[in-house]
Amino acid sequence: MNADQPYIYDIRLPAALEPGKKYPTLFTLHGKGSNERNMADLTSDLEDEFILVHIRGDLLLGAGFQYYELRGLGNPIRESFDRAVAQLTEFILNATNDHPIDPSRRYLLGFSQGAILSMTLALTMGEQLKGIVALNGYIPEFVKTEYALRPTDGVSMFVSHGQFDSVFPVRIGYENEAYLQRKTRNLTFKIYPTDHGVSPGNQSDYADWLRRDACANEA
Predict the structure, then answer these.
(1) What's the CA gap between 136 and 198, in Å, rounded?
(2) Distance CA 28, CA 56 (A)
(3) pTM of this prediction?
(4) Is position 2 within any domain?
(5) Domain residues for 97?
(6) Within a domain: residue 1?
């Protein structure tokens, strides 16, 4: 962990890194009780094209980690959540200065708690991000009603949900779609026949989506 960064993270650079070139970058956020290694498995197909920054939550939870604490399922502790949003924003901006990251092509990919934070950061960072992939999450109501939200019309969003999700029911996925349709002109929303997880088809779809979006926005 860099002394200037609040998180332990694993960064993977493209094997054929060209000196002086800036690369599209994908910051990943894992689920509650998990770790950054699981996100590496979900992005392995993108290693040759993106810088991948896998961020470990800074709070212990059993054998894994989390970014913020909860009072109960779907009920983040506001102070803990606020701290995570502020720290992650700072982390992303600082990492851009420390590595050959194209600031116009910064993406987030999050699962569950990481998806909650990815959608929140899209709303609070706005067009400081190029896009997000949010897998099986939700947007806290206090984010929608109390946070200072930035314009997100130009932020690309791929949001998916499991049809049989036993943690966050599929209706939450449709609520995400309805809300985000009003926030961006580039929303892809998909339902997959899974529980609270990521199917191979889902992984293939968002990898292709990221490639297309990053290529379309290459300087």
Answers:
(1) 8
(2) 9
(3) 0.95
(4) no
(5) 9-216
(6) no
